[in-house]
Write a structure and sequence with these properties.
Elements lengths: L1 H12 L3 H14 L4 H14 L2 H14 L5 H11 L3 H12 L8 H26 L5 H4 L2 H12 L2 H13 L12
Length: 179
């Protein structure tokens, strides 16, 4: 299973997402209990614009290990699908990982005042300023912020945060759709 996973990652790096999907499907067939493999396939689906499939794999990943960042990808997928209400619910779940920082009613207030773009901008600030984020929220933080700027279409900030990711040795910098 791991060999297929590594082949899928290589295909992704080479820009061959369809081949990457073929190999990761084989890997999942051999090891259907790997959160990592479902997360990889969700990433490939996201890059292909197959957001519903990406959400399905993120949900499978969360069934295996009920904590971590698959919910972040679900949040981005729901934004891409214009499912604002679902995206807001996803964001509340993300910030609930660190309940000392925020009251989820604030998210509703920001959404009512500024729409989904305002919520994304607020979330970026929250990620940058929250000093009490736990280990899972700190992992690959710079590339996550870069991907949110990509959703907003801010190429300059996307590049700034990708450079920070490289400086930090971010392990989440496999090719992905940032803009």
């Amino acid at each position: 299973a791991n060999a297929y996973q590594y082949l899928s990652e290589l295909m992704s790096i080479l820009g061959k997402t369809k081949d990457a999907l073929t190999y990761i499907d084989k890997a999942i067939g051999l090891n259907p209990h790997s959160q990592t493999m479902y997360n990889l396939r969700a990433s490939y689906y996201y890059d292909e614009g197959a957001y519903e499939k990406a959400i399905d794999d993120c949900m499978k990943s969360l069934e295996i290990f009920q904590y971590g960042w698959p919910i972040h990808r679900i949040f981005k997928c729901n934004i891409r699908l214009s499912n604002d209400v679902a995206a807001i619910d996803n964001l509340k779940e993300i910030v609930s990982m660190d309940p000392s920082v925020i009251d989820s009613e604030m998210i509703d207030t920001v959404f009512l005042d500024s729409g989904i773009v305002g919520v994304i901008k607020w979330f970026i600030l929250w990620l940058q300023e929250s000093s009490s984020l736990d280990f899972f929220l700190r992992m690959n933080l710079s590339s996550r912020i870069a991907s949110l700027y990509g959703i907003l279409g801010d190429a300059d900030q996307t590049l700034v945060w990708l450079e920070k990711s490289l400086e930090a040795g971010d392990s989440n910098l496999l090719p992905q759709k940032f803009c």
